[in-house]
Amino acid sequence: MHATTPLPDDQTVLKALVTAQQAEIARLNFIIAKLRRMQFGRRSEQSGGALAQLELALEGIEAAQRDAAASVPPETTGDAGSSSKRRARKPLPDHLPRETLEHTPAEGNCPDCGSLFVKLGEDVSEMLEYVPAHFKVIRHVRPKLACSRCECIVQAAAPARPIERGLPGPALLAHVLVGKFCDHLPLYRQSAIYARSGIELDRSTLADWVGQAAHLLAPLVEALRRYVLAADKVHADDTPLPVLAPGEGRTKTARLWTYVRDDRPAGSNDPPAVWFAYSPNRKGEHPQRHLRTFTGILQADAYAGFNAIYATGRVQEAACWAHLRRKLVDVHRAQASPIAAEALTRIGQLYAIEASVRGELPPSRRAVRQAQARPLLEDLLAWLEAQSRRVSRKSGISEAIQYGLNHWQALVCYAEDGRIEIDNNAAERALRAVALGRKNFLFGGSDAGGERAAALYSLIGTAKLNGLDPEAYLRDVLARIGEHPINRIEDLLPWNLGRDQSEPLRKAA
After folding, report:
1. Where are the alpha helices (DSSP H) in 336-441?
2. Exposed, middle or buried, 241 (CB in 10 Å: 0-12/13-18/19+)?
3. Sequence ranges of the domains in the chain
4. pLDDT digits (tens, 9 = 90+) for 443-481
5. What is the rounded CA–CA span in Å between residue 229 and residue 223?
6. Which helix (H) or strand (E) holds 137?
7. How many helices (H) and strands (E) are present in the chain, helices listed first?
8. Contact at 8 Å (CB) between 34 and 334?
9. Does the pTM exceed 0.90?
10. Residue ranges of E strands in 193-272
């Protein structure tokens, strides 16, 4: 047994020791509660309590309304009062093909008098049905023609394929890529799905297709990188990606970095775009290399690897209020801290101001922020400084407050520049696809696989930001990129092929 340290006899020293231990216990309980939420809890940052109870009540009311509506046949009509209580069903899209089946009564004549029926009208209802996807084989036939006089032989050139001498057409290859990097279906699952249609495509074959497609699309990804880093403001973030470590019998934690150009909240008409980059670790040298040519505003978290970039003087740091808010939410949930609750209320007032200027031009945004947000920020700073002197240095609330005070200048710079956002949510949204995919596979196969993932996440993410169906976009790109002039590669960027998913992508001229 371990020998216990004798307690001091001095009551003052003993009281100080107990107080310190209580603070340490509170800190450890906060860490335990935070880890439990990370593993088991929901990720929403909305505070609980009355709000959670209200959400449950609303869910109960909505469920009762749905049950009541389901009990009424779709064709049944009633008075205006009863129909207004039931939610109107959203009409099915017009672009879907429709098949009409007419159901006529079995009797051709009136069963009472034998006269012919006269049509008074009709009731029409629609049912949504699914037609299973299917494969087809396209046979490219190239006749050889010979001249009967001079024996000259001519033949049409072989059509371009996305993969030289490869089996997949552009549509199938796009389907595989979107299945893996957008719909989060690992290749072994796709292989099993295709086998149900009688098509044997091994996982290794699909992996080879992904690799060759990424190589084919590399010039387009490079054009996307140049476009993103040409902006005067970029959002940045990173997320872990488990990757096999060859020869070590285990995985290593690599990273996927995201860089987002999206100035639509500041009234810009420039197309939004996202570029992903892969690195085998999280060393600061990687974002420093990624951003070596960038000049402007970098909105990111407080990762120390960005400090060398800010030190150059060509990049301005802008911090993220969502990071500070998240720390306060953790404290409030774990300890029901009134200080955290007050801080969240104050930050909520700042976000309400942002909602009122979203989509406005930078000068207008700055004017509103100066008039409304600046006084709140000054008052919040004084309040945080006062609270920092009251709370224990080892407490969770102290950690959150110190984060805010240590990064205050980067947090409040958005009030001085209408181009800057209040948070870095643009980058965090871009990483959601990676986080969802990570739940469906254990690890990446290699560093090369990480590079391929970054390339495909870039193109699919940018297509989605521009309102395009990513599968339709990749299908169109893969059909033409093999013969497209490299000096006009920007023509294949998503906003140059079509802006609205409802409109078909432009065909090659």
Report:
1. 338-357, 362-368, 374-388, 396-406, 408-412, 425-438
2. buried
3. 146-319+424-509, 320-423
4. 666 888 889 999 999 999 999 999 999 999 999 999 889
5. 10
6. none
7. 18, 7
8. yes
9. no
10. 233-245, 250-261
